[in-house]
Write a structure and sequence with these properties.
With 124 residues, this protein is α/β, with parallel strands linked by helices. It is built from 4 helices and 7 strands, in the order βαβααβαββββ. A 5-stranded mixed β-sheet has the order 1-2-3-5-4, with no helix packed on it. A hairpin with a 2-residue loop joins β4 and β5. The longest helix has 15 residues.
Length: 124
């Protein structure tokens, strides 16, 4: 199993997913899972953006909203960081699907992906 690990995406899913696709093409491998270790920035709309407690330079919609109403090209599991729309993720306190193919691990806990157990603590 090939797992990509990313930190501090800040909602730039388009950039990360295109980089993973580039790696797959050039290295001739298949990436099975993307783990994001905080600052995922799952903003679904302008209301979520207003709930971010971040400097103004980080208040951009970026590209998560596309995958919220679409589907991510890779199974994606993320934990929260300090750049999150906590109002939205609070609804998924114990973990859950933040978008199709995109799973929020929750504020603390363990999830299974195939035979792999993935544990973590959120920064929210």
């Amino acid at each position: 199993m090939k797992i990509a690990v990313e930190g501090c995406m800040h909602g730039e899913l388009d950039k990360v997913y295109s980089t993973l696709q580039y790696i797959e093409r050039t290295q001739k491998i298949k990436i099975d899972l993307l783990l994001c270790c905080g600052d995922f920035q799952a903003d679904t709309n302008e209301h979520d953006m207003k709930r971010l407690t971040v400097p103004l330079k980080h208040r951009k919609m970026n590209s998560f909203w596309k995958y919220y109403s679409g589907i991510a090209p890779y199974p994606t599991i993320f934990i929260g960081g300090n750049h999150e729309a906590s109002n939205y993720l609070w609804e998924l306190y114990n973990g859950g699907w933040a978008a199709p193919n995109t799973y929020f691990k929750g504020f603390a806990g363990v999830v299974k992906f195939g035979n792999l157990s993935i544990g973590g603590l959120s920064g929210i």
